[in-house]
């Protein structure tokens, strides 16, 4: 904790957390690319769909930064690398070096062979020239090595299974062995001759070896929503929206936590009813400030009901139970005041609130709406729960105007100063009681 005198002399810079769109771009443009390269995986060997990446962000990585998101992406690519290795993926460079070493060994052996004698055409001259033999053999082997490199460079993805690698290697070695056994000799006239007829001579040409290719039979690994759990386990977070249409006495609020924004339901139920039994019971691990806010909300709700329905004695004769899920999560703060009032009035008048509506704001005893914090985070939480209409205090309009367009897009936002404005937005003038 920083002492107040020291804090007063410091320049405080508030850093907002990343929104989902920003996390998507960071993951695509940086995290995924660097992780894939670190694992030795090529882009054509794997595909992580946008839907899978979005599910990873919303169901596993809701923190303000991207550190946990990076850990999850690394976990995915490590498992993909293991899966590719088990399928038999071989590094292209290793295959190339292996074949070149085999060709080199054959060339060294061929230079150690004794000089051979061959007839030289019509003159019947004998040609005994070891240098010519070595030059011809070396030339042929060099062509074979070039053919090997051509074959390697023409691989579609530069990968092969162990079986295809062994087959291609063995085939090329056989041709090189044949080349060594029956070398091509040059006569003084530059005519190629061998001990066997010319038609039976083995001569590796680039066009022949082009057919010896290493086929890529490895299936592309696709990570989508259906198999995401196989890589990162079960989701850590679940859908925050409990109701498609909130029942009577239930209203959706918005909260701001260390993990960012979240939706917050306020539920009010009738415990017992009788003359003079009006009371309020609170549960949900509420802090002192939130308990005081609930007491204020109860008082304001009674005043509002007296204005709207003077003959309704609901609050005077009813013991109410107000609960804020989830019960295991501690909660505190005054920003749920307007949500609590709306929840109590919904139960008292037996009316649903407007569908896809969320609200936040502190309320005074006179019904004035005071500003709150975490506007950006609360809007992100509302979008995640597919909320279309949001109610904010008028004092937070400036905070809303500073947000990026993609954050505000598709939302109907209302700014209010008094609770009577919230009442009209939540229940509407044509709203009928629910029997």
From TrEMBL:
Region (Disordered): 104-145
Catalytic site: 335, 378
Pfam families: Lon_C, Lon_lid
One GO MF term: serine-type endopeptidase activity
Any one of the GO CC terms: mitochondrial matrix
Keyword NAD among UniProt keywords: no
Alphabetic keyword roster: ATP-binding, Hydrolase, Nucleotide-binding, Protease, Serine protease
Residues of the Lon proteolytic domain: 245-429
Basic and acidic residues bias (residue ranges): 122-136
Gene3D superfamilies: 1.10.8.60, 3.30.230.10
GO terms classed as biological process: chaperone-mediated protein complex assembly; mitochondrion organization; protein quality control for misfolded or incompletely synthesized proteins
Family: Belongs to the peptidase S16 family.
Name of the featured protein: Lon protease homolog, mitochondrial-like isoform X3
Name of the gene this protein is made from: LOC103699322
